Structure formats: C-alpha cells, structure tokens
C-alpha cells in the first residue's frame, strides 16, 4: 500500500467516524460501524486507530485544527486593528460552537481531560486507552495553539491602541475564552424562555460582544482591588 493510499484510507476512516459521532455520539458508536461505514476491514481500521478512544482523540485533534484555522485566518486579516480582530473572533467562535456541535463538544471534553491529566492523583484514574493514544499525546503539544494566536491578537490591540494598555495579554485572552465557553453553555437555559428573565438569544449575542468591547476599551471601569496586576477589569 502506497503512502497516498494510506493517507486516503486514514482520512476515510476519520470522516466516517466524524459522521457517526455526530449522529450517535461517542458511546453510541462502535468501531464495527466505523469500519462498515468506511467500507474498510475492521482489522485495517484498528491498524490506523488502535481503539475507539484513539479515534475520538484523532477527531478531537481535527476539531482543534479547524478552530485554529479560524483563529489564524482572523489574525491574517488586513486593515483591521486588534479590537476588530477580537470582535470577529468572538462572533466566529460563537458560530463554531453552534454549527460544529460535535467538534466543539470534543474540544470541551479534552479540556475536561486536561483537568485530570494535570493532577497526578486524578491522572491515575484516567482511561489508559486515552493516555496511550498517539493522538491524545499530539493534542498535548498543540492544544494551546489557538490560545497563542488569541494572545497575539490582544497584544496587537494593545500596541495599536484599540485595547486598553494596562491589560496583560495572556490573562485577558484566557478570561475572554472562558466567557465564551460560559456564553455557549448558557445558550440552552437562556433559550428556554421564562417570563421573569428579560433576555433572549437574539439580543444576547450583540450585547455580549458590546460588553466585551467596552471592557477591553476601558469604557466600563468597576472599582479595582489594590495590588492586582493585569486584571481584565
């Protein structure tokens, strides 16, 4: 089997897994179904991906790669300052979280795994099939790539004056990212309309973006805690 054919078969298995994980979820998908859907023998499927956990980690890596492409394309935008890039990033991240549900859930799942992995005691309780996954270990190397680009965008905004100068880029970007995760997680509760809650999904997104702009520009200035450096607020 030539190198090109190997790459094609690996991609076919991965694409089939993405479709099945999207339709049935991780737990509802079996490796037999992936092999059958890709029209590839089960043995060859296991040659490329040692088990379902390894395959899901490969899908997770593709999810991070796709998200990184969004970050990178925005950072390469011409004639835009750092604030404009961040606004674009916020909007497209929100779209990604809604339109690419399976990818987004895979990313959040990996973030949860990192909480376990970074704690030696909890790491011992992790699924050994995940720890042994080649693709999980690749993710350890690349999962901060989006963050690095986000930090560069914030730094650019500070440099060009569109973002307030006293902010620390790393803290600012990761605080913003955490808010975006919270925004996505709360979409369901907000969308379940209740009379006493005067907020709707249609006006929450522009309101969220406007508040982020105000915070980053310094329009909103709550009282500061003395001695805290680099706070977003």
Automatic annotation (TrEMBL):
One Pfam family per UniProt: TetR_N
**Gene3D superfamilies, alphabetized:** Homeodomain-like, Tetracycline Repressor, domain 2
Q: Which stretches are labeled DNA-binding?
A: 30-49
Domain named HTH tetR-type is located at 7-67
Show the InterPro entries listed in the entry. Homeodomain-like_sf, HTH-type_TetR-like_transc_reg, HTH_TetR
Q: Which PANTHER family match?
A: HTH-TYPE TRANSCRIPTIONAL REPRESSOR SCO4008 (PTHR30328:SF54), TRANSCRIPTIONAL REPRESSOR (PTHR30328)
State what protein this is by name. TetR/AcrR family transcriptional regulator
The species is Belliella filtrata
């Amino acid at each position: 089997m030539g190198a090109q054919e190997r790459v094609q078969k690996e991609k076919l298995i991965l694409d089939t897994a993405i479709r099945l994980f999207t339709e049935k979820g991780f737990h509802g998908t079996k490796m037999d179904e992936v092999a059958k859907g890709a029209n590839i023998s089960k043995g060859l499927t296991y040659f490329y991906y040692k088990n379902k956990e390894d395959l899901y980690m490969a899908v997770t890596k593709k999810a991070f790669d796709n998200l990184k492409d969004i970050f990178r394309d925005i950072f390469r935008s011409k004639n835009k300052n750092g604030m404009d890039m961040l606004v674009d990033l916020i909007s497209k991240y929100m779209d990604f979280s809604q339109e690419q549900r399976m990818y987004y859930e895979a990313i959040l799942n990996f973030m949860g795994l990192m909480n376990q992995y970074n704690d030696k005691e909890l790491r011992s309780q992790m699924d050994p099939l995940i720890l042994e996954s080649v693709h999980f270990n690749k993710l350890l190397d690349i999962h901060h790539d989006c963050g690095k680009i986000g930090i560069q965008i914030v730094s650019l905004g500070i440099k060009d004056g569109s973002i307030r100068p006293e902010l620390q880029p790393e803290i600012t970007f990761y605080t913003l990212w955490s808010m975006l995760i919270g925004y996505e997680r709360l979409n369901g509760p907000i969308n379940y309309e209740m009379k006493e809650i005067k907020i709707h999904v249609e006006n929450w997104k522009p309101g969220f973006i406007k508040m982020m702009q105000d915070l980053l520009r310094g329009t909103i200035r709550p009282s500061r805690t003395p001695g805290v450096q680099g706070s977003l607020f």
